[in-house]
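Weekly structure sync, notes
Attendees: PL (lead), two postdocs, one rotation student
Agenda item 3: pending single-chain targets
PL asked that the sequence for the first pending target be pasted directly into the notes so everyone works from the same version. It is reproduced below exactly as submitted, 331 residues in total.
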Amino acid sequence: MISLTRHVLIPVVFLLICIRKYRESTWGKCKNKVKLDGKLAIVTGANSGIGYQIAKELASRGAHVIMACRNLGRAATAVRKIKQELSCSSIIIPMELDLESVDSILLFVDEIEATYSSVHILVNNAGVSHPSSTRCKTKHGFEIHFGVNYLGHFILTNLLMGLLDRETSRIIVISSLMHERGKIYLDDLNLERTISKTDPYANSKLANIYFCKELARRTEGRPISVYAVCPGWVYTNLFRHQNLKWYQILLSLPFAFLFMRTPTQGAQTAIYCATEPDLKNGQVYRDCKEYRSKVNFDQGVSKKLWEISRDFVKTIHSNVKLWDLYGSSFL
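Predicted structure, written out during the meeting:
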């Protein structure tokens, strides 16, 4: 037994650790020291995971951070934890925001507009992941991934555009490498006719990148920059609804050890895009550098997706007035 441990197990463990360390060295880290004093940053889904780490880092750089979360109690707990960890006087405010609900988004935006004169950083981070077989829907009847991961942020960003457009600002859209597996069904975005071999989560992440590119195109010439971020495979509670069996978790452990990032590691590219000077507008970033996606993005698709999304919003809530980015007026 001692011989087995010495000649097999110890070398294997050592090799795995070396592979892990090598992979970590390729993931990229935001190394700039850009300060954000006087800047207002909004981070959705900030009470845990990479959203928490993004909010914490922005606060450490002096930003006034709004932690926009579905559960206000958990957001308040996260705020207290960040303040304890940073031991600084940064202003961090928890606010309720449920991206499933247009009413919640409207109330959130109304409070932001009543309190602040401009927004400098918006990180669209919040997201959900459910088993494809469940076909969960939002409060307004949209497929849950499309409705929360994409459409909720589409509405939020549009409603905040008046504040984002007043000074130099950045919008970071959290996507995923899984966008390369996604498909955009323009005639069935809500998957009501059920495309059996499709991944709704991947579809929503692909929609996020199309949103990024179309928003960058529509804000060209304005003091707004938009970036899509693939954070990598990160250990968070995002997949808490997947109901994995114990043996599935056990089998995934070696892969998780080699490939899964901590929330701090997963947050690096978003922090990089929020702070690094002279990045390319409308591009996808991964590992703190520009990423060349396997997807051949079609401008016609991004334009049509925007128009359909706008029409969806009009049908579910007549009081939502989206920003016309071409003419600086409301639609």
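Discussion points:
- The chain has one domain: 31-316.
- Residues 325-331 have pLDDT under 50 and may be disordered.
Action: rotation student to compare against the earlier draft before next sync.
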